[in-house]
């Protein structure tokens, strides 16, 4: 008999975290690796948020919190939803968790029965598929591709829906592609879903503030579908708070209650100090967030110009998040004389071995032609990475 459960044996390891760990390991051995695999802002958390956390410790916020989060934090989240997204939620519809990752697994475990189908427009964030599998749901991939700007169409979605469809999960701005749905596109998707009363939407909006195409649009803004949307957000990306661990949902009350019950058996409420800091993040000025977005925008343009200079790469201009997802399939089948590139995973490993750049292969996101690179790193490192990548790829014939 195995020591470990089938559940954990069958669970796919997070590719983003695995590649980041590999990069760290090499760095510890003295290799000068440029880490473009992990998606996290390289900025410090804004000072006023840090100050709020320090004050929380001094003010004695050291006890367990309500499972769903402090009431005044949930009120601040409702105010944020109203102010920034035009969404009406009440505090009993909000559940605060230990990162958006936990917010999503809460929802998946609370809503998906074994055999239920969960639609994932591909490319999708790695963890969605693993979470669905953990709940014994069935992943139904909707392939898009660079030619379609990585966007699912309403018709494609309609064709994928069956009586077993329970959830659709997507992010806009998207990880890994940086694609952003327009309001009209979201409206069309919402209309399809509205016609299928058992189908719910998990709208992952964690990259809301890193959007270069204009105003962020939430699918829950359409009243005819709002009671079937779980809006997910968090502080990791927009406020440079990855290590603090805070995510949240706005959801129909029954789903929020279920998530509270689930979380009550797993982790309880997230860190009390983080929650107090989150109130400052949500209630106070977005100026530092906007500054970070502007820096990401400049880096995006820099990376796109570096990639445009490398033969064999088909680029896509991301409109949000901090990733480029580039078609590098032209290198599949090529060799440098010793290594033959059989697939996109081989190419990602070749780039690590030869150029010392860690990336994430698209296969992990449901796309076998592209490679994801995070540009949430300094311009100097990006320029160096561009140089190394060009040299390494030029050796493949
Ligand atoms: N959703 C997406 C699309 C992400 O890229 C991430 C990144 N970690 C998360 C959710 C989870 O974020 P966190 O748990 O740090 O809030
Ligand atoms: N979401 C980030 C990424 O995709 C962080 C790592 C993770 O949680 O997967 O790289």
Polypeptide structure, described:
The protein has 2 domains: 6-44 and 288-394, Aspartate Aminotransferase, domain 1; 63-283, 3-Layer(aba) Sandwich (Aspartate Aminotransferase, domain 2). With 397 residues, the protein is an alpha/beta fold. Helix 4 runs parallel beside helix 10 and helix 11 runs parallel beside helix 13 (379-394). The model has no long low-confidence stretch (mean pLDDT 97). The protein has helices at 6-10, 15-28, 47-58, 71-85, 100-111, 126-134, 154-160, 183-194, 253-266, 272-283, 287-308, 344-355, 379-394; strands at residues 34-35, 94-97, 117-122, 138-143, 165-171, 200-204, 229-234, 247-250, 323-327, 357-358, 360-361, 370-374. Strand 11 and strand 12 form a beta hairpin. A 7-stranded mixed beta sheet has the order 2-8-7-6-5-3-4, sandwiched between helices. It has a 3-stranded antiparallel beta sheet with strand order 9-12-11. The chain has a two-stranded parallel ribbon with strand order 1-10. It has 13 helices and 12 strands. It is globular. The structure holds 4'-deoxy-4'-aminopyridoxal-5'-phosphate and glutamic acid. Residues 39, 99-101, 125, 171, 175, 204, 206, 234, 236, 242, 247 line the site of 4'-deoxy-4'-aminopyridoxal-5'-phosphate.
């Amino acid at each position: 008999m195995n020591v470990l459960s089938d559940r954990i044996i069958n669970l796919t390891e997070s590719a983003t975290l695995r590649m980041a760990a590999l990069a760290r390991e090499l760095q510890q051995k003295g290799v000068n690796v440029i880490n473009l695999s992990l998606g996290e802002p390289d900025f410090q958390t804004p000072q006023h948020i840090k100050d709020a956390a320090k004050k929380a410790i001094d003010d004695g916020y050291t006890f367990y919190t309500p499972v769903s989060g402090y009431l005044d934090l949930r009120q601040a989240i409702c105010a944020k939803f109203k102010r920034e997204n035009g969404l009406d939620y009440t505090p009993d519809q909000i559940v605060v968790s230990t990162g958006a990752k936990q917010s999503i697994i809460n929802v998946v475990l609370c809503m998906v029965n074994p055999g239920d189908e969960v639609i994932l427009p591909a490319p999708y964030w790695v963890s969605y598929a693993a979470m669905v599998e953990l709940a014994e749901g069935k992943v139904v991939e909707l392939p898009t591709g660079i030619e379609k700007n990585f966007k699912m169409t309403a018709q494609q979605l309609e064709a994928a829906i069956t009586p077993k469809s329970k959830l659709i999960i997507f992010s806009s701005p998207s990880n890994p592609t940086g694609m952003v749905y327009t309001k009209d596109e979201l409206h069309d998707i919402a209309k399809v879903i509205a016609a299928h009363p058992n189908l719910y939407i998990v709208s992952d909006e964690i990259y809301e503030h890193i959007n270069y195409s204009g105003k962020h649009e939430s699918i829950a803004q359409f009243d005819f579908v709002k009671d079937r949307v779980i809006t997910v957000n968090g502080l990791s990306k927009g406020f440079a708070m990855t290590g603090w661990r805070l995510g949240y949902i706005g959801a129909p009350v029954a789903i929020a209650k279920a998530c509270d019950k689930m979380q009550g058996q797993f982790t309880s409420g997230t860190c009390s100090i983080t929650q107090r800091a989150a109130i400052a993040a949500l209630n106070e000025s977005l100026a530092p967030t906007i500054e970070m977005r502007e820096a990401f925008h400049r880096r995006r343009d820099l990376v796109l110009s570096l990639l445009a200079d490398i033969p064999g790469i088909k680029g896509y201009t991301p409109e949000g998040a901090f990733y480029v997802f580039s078609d590098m399939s032209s290198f599949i089948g090529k060799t440098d004389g010793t290594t033959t590139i059989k697939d996109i995973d081989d190419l990602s490993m070749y780039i690590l071995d030869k150029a010392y750049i860690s990336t994430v292969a698209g296969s992990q996101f449901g796309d076998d032609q592209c490679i994801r690179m995070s540009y949430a790193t300094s311009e100097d490192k990006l320029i160096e990475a561009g140089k190394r990548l060009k040299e390494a790829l030029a050796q493949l014939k």
